[in-house]
Amino acid sequence: MSSPKPDKASSNDAKTSNFLRQTIEHDLAAGTYAQRRWGGSPGDAAHHAAGPLDPAKVRTRFPPEPNGYLHIGHAKSICLNFGLARDYGGVCHLRFDDTNPEKEDTEYVNSIIDAVKWLGFDWNGAPDAPPYQASDYFGFMYRAAEHLIETGQAYVDEQTPEQMRLNRGDFGKPGVDSPFRARTPAENLARFREMRDGLHEDGSMVLRAKIDMAHPNINLRDPAVYRIRRATHHNTGDTWCIYPMYTFAHPIEDALEQITHSICTLEFEDQRPFYDWLLGKLCQGGLLGAPPPHQYEFARLNLTYVITSKRKLAQLVYDHKVSGWDDPRMPTIVGLRRRGYTPQSLQLFAERIGVTKSDSWIDYATLEGCLRETLDHSAPRAMAVLDPIKLVLTNWDEVMGAGTIDECSAPVHPHHPELGQRHFKMGQEVWIERSDYEETPPKGFFRLFPPSIDAGGNAVPGSRARLKYGHVIECTGAIKDEAGNPSVVLTRLLPDTKSGTPGSDSVKVKGVITWVGVNEASAAEVRLYDRLFTDPQPDAGGKDFIESLNPHSLKVVTAMVEPSVASAQPDQKFQFERHGYFTADRVDHVPGQRAVFNLAVGLRDGWGK
Ligand code: ATP
Ligand code: MG
After folding, report:
1. Alpha carbon distance 268, 179 (integer Å)
2. Rounded to whole angstroms, how far apart are CA atoms 313 and 538?
3. For a Cys staple, 428 with which of 76, 105, 396, 488, CB 3.0–4.6 Å?
4. Tell me, what DSSP letter sits at residue 52?
């Protein structure tokens, strides 16, 4: 398992170099793409040749299939592709890879647009430009297929899928030529047009590139490039009953968009020779402008305790294991956002994990560390009591005067004095954490415990602790409920010890207690989230990830919070002192009506302790 050490400095450092940056720098220095022209929109060789020199120094792309919500792995790819374009004076394209008619949906299209925007990126060279759609290129793809047929480089194969599979051979065995491989271009063209015109059944024949049935790379043993599929497409409707295969469509999409560096995950490495073969043929034929794009592969993100397969994430949603795609425990971008992740934290994460050529696992703590680090700079502090018990200052009237409300203040952020002070009020009663009072304290417990008699018969006084930003108090006992559990903690206040006043530290204490005044506290629903899985690799090696769902991944409590918190806007973030970073839930929190906060991340990595 590799987990780069969270290194405070690196967030401000110059970008760490990697093989992709080196490649781009080399291409820029060598002028590899300097003569490229740009026709103002995607298009064929003639279209771009008529345009000026491309003002974009490089073109990258992020090409999601709109068949689900994006997840943290996609966030890595987005930050990478858009980040490279930004850093090298280029443009990154957002392109919907919607060549598969069956699985796609406009709900997903919209969520992907939102996710990329939210992460902080513009696409296609202008703010609010429409994303590109691969399905807009079906016409060109068809033309490219006819070109291959006419030049003897593709044929219609009518073997059954089973025969085709058998005749493909395997690693040790060369494939066998199809009996249809020797057809003339004219015969193939006629057949292919029949396919297009709907004269043949789904699955009855395919168009295959004619390369080499004995090639050591099985992907080059005459791969299928077009199939018959009667399905209504969300963009092109029923215009087509044949659709290109991904391996044929993808290189063409890149080339029509004048992409220079086409960056994908390692599983496509074996497809690169076909990518180069196809674009080489279409450039030779004058259909596409040269030089063609080049494909580079990097290791996909594997994150411990997380699954990053859209299909498996969909299963969690449809089986109601989570509340939806945006459940704050989901690794989807909508889920992370609702949980309290910020664009900056995900960008920092992408930068920190870098790009490599070999698969590895990133520790979930690295992701959490990035969130903590970015929120630490920005989140205002506040007090919240997550498991409240009432504390009474029994000598309040005597010391402070009957009915007095004492004003306390604290910095909004300890390192940003310019953000000013926050103010809150203390009266005779405050809420504290239930765990801050122990009738029989364990060794080293510095918070509140009552007076007692020790084993030797000696009187041990009640403990003293400071109410944070307020006075020092001494515990005198507790009132218990019928079950014998403490229900009210009794204390007395020590005069002249208020934080920030002269002589306030005349009484030294080790314990500091966070609190919220009963007179001004309001109740809030707080959702305490934990990891969704207990297994660090929930779906590795074919494991059933449902079995390692963490039964304690959500705990809901009613907390008492200070006024600055109760009036928060949805998505507003705080550090609840002592507890961690919280965000006002963007769905359920309604200012002034219903307060709902999500635990985004604790103050330190407490997992496994
Ligand atoms: P899934 O397997 O979850 O369906 P996918 O790879 O099929 O994911 P696409 O929508 O096709 O999803 O991917 C869009 C882009 O995001 C691709 O370039 C892909 O390489 C990249 N991507 C997807 N998952 C990851 C990941 N875990 N790490 C890095 N990049 C990823
Ligand atoms: Mg995919």
Report:
1. 30
2. 12
3. 396
4. P
* Residue nearest atom 14 in ligand 1 by C-alpha distance: 64
Kindly give the distance from the C-alpha atom of residue 355 to the centroid of ligand 1, in angstroms, as a whole number: 14
Per-residue pLDDT tens over the stretch 568-590: 999 999 999 999 999 999 999 99
Q: Would you please indicate which residues are annotated as catalytic (active-site) residues? A: 65, 300, 310
User: What would the two tokens of residue 596 be?
Assistant: 């709902």
Please check whether residue 419 is in contact with residue 412, taking contact to mean a CB–CB distance below 8 angstroms: yes
Tens of pLDDT along 269-286? 999 999 999 999 999 999
Ligand located closest to 71 CA: 1
With 70 as the cut, is the pLDDT of residue 5 above it?
A: no
Ligand 1 atom nearest to CA at 301: 28
Distance in Å, CA 70 to ligand 2 centroid: 11
List the domains of the chain with CATH numbers. 150-244 (3.90.800.10), 386-517 (2.40.240.10), 522-602 (2.40.240.10)
Q: Is the CB of 66 under 6 A from ligand 1?
A: no
Residue 380 has pLDDT above 50, yes or no: yes
**Rounded to two decimals, what is the model's pTM?**
0.92
Those residues with Cβ within 8 angstroms of residue 439's Cβ, 6 or more apart along the chain or in another chain = 449, 450, 478, 486
Closest-CA residue, ligand 1 atom 24, reads 73
The residue that leads in pLDDT, 492 or 100, is: 492
